[in-house]
Amino acid sequence: MIRIHTAILALAVFSVVAQAQPPRRAFIQSEGHASVSIKPDQAQIQFAVLTTATTAQAAANQNATQVTAVLTALAAVLGPNPDIKTLSYSLNPNYTYPQNGQPILTGYTASNTIQVTLIDLSIIGKVIDTGIQAGANRVQGLQFGVQDDQPVRQQALKMAAVQAKAHADAMASGLGLHTGAAISIQEGAGVTILPANRTPAAAGATTPIETGVVSVDATVTLQVELTQ
User: Fold this and answer.
1) How far apart are CA 58 and CA 91, in angstroms?
2) Which of 10, 97, 210, 221 is deepest in the core (most CB within 10 A)?
3) What are phi and psi of 80, to 5 degrees?
C-alpha cells in the first residue's frame, strides 16, 4: 500500500512540473553577414635567414652572423625601440639518399625567422630591401592589419544583425507569419587580410608595395519567435 501511494505521489509531482513548464515557442533562425573594409595601419614582415655548412657549429655561427647583420640594419631603418621578435629557430642535418644505400650526412642547415611590425607603412618597401641586402634570404610573408579593429568590428556586427533580422522577417512573411521577440543571438567575427599587391622592383629601386585594404567580417546568428 505504501508503494502505491509513493507511485501516485511521484506521478502527481511530475504532472505538476510538466504543467509548470511553459509551452515551447515556435521560432525561426537566420544568419546575417557583413564586411567593412578599411585601410590598414599596421604591417608585419617576416624575414628568414637560412645557412648551410658541413658542420652544425659552422651553420649556426654563419647564421648568427647574418641574423645579427639583418637586425642591425633593420634597427637603423626603424629607429629606436624597433618592434622585432624571433618567431622560430632550427638547426637540422641534411642527408642524401642513394638508391639501395644508407643515408649520407652532407651538412647542416640553420634557420632563423624574425618578424618586424611596422606602423609607418610608407617604409615597407625600404624595410624589405634593407633586410634582404643585409643577409635575409627569404621574405616569409607580408601581412596588413589594424591596431584597433573594435570600432569597425562593432559596425560590421550591427550590419550583420540588421541583415539577420531582415532574413528572418522575409522567411516568416513567406509562411504568413510575423517575427516576435529575439530568443537568442550569437556573433562570430574575424579580420580577413586581403593579399597585398607587390610588384617587382627595378634594379636599385625600392620594392613598391600597395597596402590594399583590411576587411573586417562579421556573422550573426539570430533566433526570433514566430507569431501569427
Assistant:
1) 11
2) 221
3) -65, 145
pLDDT band at 91 (very low <50, low <70, confident <90, very high): very high
Q: What is the β-pairing status of strands 27-38 and 214-227?
A: antiparallel
Domains and CATH numbers, the chain: 23-39+149-227 (3.30.110.170), 42-145 (3.30.70.2970)
State the alpha helices, DSSP H only, in 79-149.
124-134
Q: Which residue has the higher pLDDT, 129 or 195?
A: 129
Q: Is 205 helix (H, G, I), strand (E, B) or coil?
A: coil
Q: Can you give the C-alpha Rg of the chain in angstroms?
A: 31
Look at residue 117 and give its three-state secondary structure: strand
| Residues whose CB falls within 8 Å of the CB of residue 12, separated by 6 or more in sequence, listed in order | none
Residue that is written with C-alpha cell 525561426 in the block: 28
Which neighbouring-strand residues pair with 191? 216
Residues 95 and 101 sit within 8 Å (Cβ to Cβ): no
pLDDT in tens, 200-212: 444 455 778 887 8
**Local structure of 89: helix, strand or coil:** strand
Cell of 41: 595601419
Between CA 136 and CA 18 the distance in angstroms is 72
Q: Is 13 helix (H, G, I), strand (E, B) or coil?
A: helix
Predicted local distance difference test score (pLDDT) of residue 16: 47
The Cα 121–Cα 211 span in angstroms is 8
Of the candidates 49, 214, 19, the one whose C-alpha atom is nearest the C-alpha of residue 139 is: 49
CB hemisphere CA count around 3 (13 angstroms):
0
